[in-house]
Amino acid sequence: MGFHETLRDFRLLPLKSARIEILQVNLGYRCNMTCKHCHVQAGPAREETMAAVTIGQVIAVLKKFRITNLDLTGGAPELNPHFKYLVRTARELGCHVIVRNNLTILFEKAMEDLAEFYRQTGVEIIASLPSYREVGVDRVRGKETFRKSIQALRTYNRLGFGTNSADLKLNLVYNPPGAFLPPLQSTIEEAYKRELARNFGITFDRLYTFTNMPIGRFREFLIRTNAFEKYMEKLISAFNPETIDGIMCRHLLNVGWDGRLYDCDFNQLMGLPVQKTYAQHIQDFDDALLREREITFGDHCFGCTAGQGST
Fold first, then answer.
1. First to last CA, the chain
2. Mean pLDDT for the chain overall
3. Which of 51, 99, 108, 140 is deepest in the core (most CB within 10 A)?
4. Is residue 158 helix, strand or coil?
5. Residue 169 phi, psi (nearest 5)
6. Closest Cα to residue 72, out of 64, 83, 82, 60?
7. Which DSSP category does 273 fall into?
């Protein structure tokens, strides 16, 4: 049974946006890492990056429509040459800025002042750390990644992030290391906080769990290991209708590196833009229509609605 049929059977159609609380902007697919579970298939060789003119259009939308939350992602969003300009300008407009940070970016050339920049601008950091154990992280993200990640987290703590500060939030993200669903978020958050504090003296605010989406490199892994159909069956059987209210596509709008509009970052990588009856590019942004739009979806959306859901 497909996602459309499942929503129909639970009387959840049409699936529509609730509101646009967040403008999520993908600044490009270039990254200093090549993680095995990366749904955008980011890496050092990717050349896609958001141009200055498109960033100007993003800023114009933030200003005109008073969108108060900006979520910056990639790749490594910091590798976009206009990244700091966008962050500063959004903060001057009063936006709460979230940055999806891979932690190891702090050790790249010309990034020596990045953590201090984050402190000065007061962004919220959401950092990926797939395990609190070295072997789990290095297996998914590459050798020496765990050591660098711990060092980066200590740097953030030293600057005040993740220390119960109202202005300097540090959150972590957990993805399962294989073809299974994440455990209960509250349970694994407790384990992360206990182990990171005990072994490294690290503190953070929240931990979010995300199901690995059956797209990008993870899809390739599933197909290569003959596990794709079994994993999809697992996601479908774990469908939870109570997750629908909180799934990200109902509360944000995603902007691709080229300015095209999508219902979420996953749809962007699937090449599924917002429906053609709505604006297709950030330069044509129409808040009144987009905030009540019908959402484009596919069977990969079972990843966001399985179990406790990915919100």
1. 23
2. 94
3. 99
4. helix
5. -85, 135
6. 83
7. B
Are 157 and 163 within 8 A, CB to CB? yes
Distance CA 233, CA 9 (A): 17
- Does the model's pTM come out above 0.70? yes
CA distances from 58 to 256, 258, 287 (A): 11, 11, 13
CA 19, 22, 27, 32 dihedral sign is: negative
| Distance between CA atoms of residues 110 and 132, nearest Å | 28
The answer to whether 165 touches 121, Cβ cutoff 8 Å, is no
| Both tokens assigned to 272 | 């599924």
Structure tokens at 258: 């080229």
Token pair recorded at residue 191 = 């384990």
Contact 188/207 with Cβ under 8 angstroms?
yes
For residue 311, what pLDDT is reported? 63
Cβ contact 29:256 at 8 Å: no
Tokens for 281? 């590019």
CA distance 121 to 225: 44
pLDDT at 99: 98
Copy the structure tokens of residue 225: 């290991």
What is the three-class DSSP state of 255? strand
Report all structural domains of the chain as residue ranges with CATH numbers, in order of start. Answer: 18-305 (3.20.20.70)
Instruction: For residues 60 and 67, give the distance between their C-alpha atoms in angstroms, rounded to a whole number.
Output: 10
Residue type present at position 278? Y
What single-letter amino acid sits at 276? K
The token pair at 57 is 């259009």
What pLDDT, in 10s, does the model give residues 218-243? 899 899 999 999 999 999 999 999 99
Task: Specify which residues 34 forms β-bridges with.
Answer: none
Mutual angle of helices 185-200 and 145-158, in 10-degree steps: 80
Only one residue has tokens 């190891």, namely 104
